[in-house]
Structures are given as structure tokens and as C-alpha cells.
Amino acid sequence: MKIRDRLLLAAERQFAERGTLETTLTQIRDAAGASVGALYHHFPDKAELYREVWTHALADYQEHFWVVVGESTDARAGVTAGVTEHLRWVTENQYRAKVLTSARPPGVRDSDSNREFLRNVLRWWRTHARYGAVRDLEFDLVYALWLGPAQEYSRHWLGGEIRTAPTDIARDLADAAWRALGTTND
Fold first, then answer.
1. Residue 107's pLDDT is what?
2. What sign does the CA torsion over 92, 52, 147, 22 have?
């Protein structure tokens, strides 16, 4: 594995376990087995390293989410698959998920990849809304109703406040999202 990748993985784990503010570059460097020079060659400072870790986690999440939603056969399948995939991804990628529950670094929201992801999901949603399969709502509200409960559950689970794994309650949260967003409940 390349040194840059080792640094990113070590930083991801350190940020998830210790928090962004408490994590030091020395801890990351030591965990990656990298020299001071190697660290600064790839990342000029902790803020840039954090931004890269956060962006990488977001891209991984969005890729997995879009695959199941984009390939869904109908609106209900897409809504429920999105929730189920969200919860699966959190369960299997706890360090990345913890990073994504931390403060978003500047500029990520406006990145080309994030805008493309949002355009794709919005286009998918509007297509199904035009056919009357889902409610025609503002996308911010769609997002809150679709993934808000799953995100909140995940946040508490990642924090150790809930013991039942997100994948164990995925069906219930997926069905609830469909009841909130679909025009039929069959």
C-alpha cells in the first residue's frame, strides 16, 4: 500500500477514535509508519489531511448509495434500498461513518463530485415524482424524511448509546421512509 493511502487510513481511524481536535499529526504518522517528511509531502497540514479523509469517506458512501438507488427497479425499491444501504455502509465502515458525523470541512459541499451525486439523486427523485410514485417535495425535506431517522439512529449507535446494529433495524427504517415519501403504501 502506498504511503499516502496508509496515511489516509491511519488518519481516518485516529480521527474516528480520538476526534479531530484531539488527534495529532504525530499519532497519525506513527500509526501509518511514515516519516515526518512523507506526511508533509502529501499533506501540508492537519486541516488538509482531515479534508481528504472526509472527502474520501463521503465519496465511498455516495458511490454505494447511488449504486443501489440508481439501479432500483421502482421508487419504493429505491427509497428502501437507499435506507438499507445507508445502514449497511455505516455498520461495515464505522471509522468512515464516524468521520462523516463530524464537522464537514469547508469546500466539500461545493465539490464537483458532491454536486454530481446530488444532481443524480435529485433527477432520480424528480422522475419518480413526475410519475406520482413519490411525493413532490423540496429536496431538503426529501433528504430529511428519507435518511434523517437512519442517520440519527446511526449516530447514536456509533456513539455507543444504542446496542442494536443498524442493519438489524434496516427494514423498519426503510419501511418508515417509504411511508413518509411514497404516494402508496402497498
1. 82
2. positive
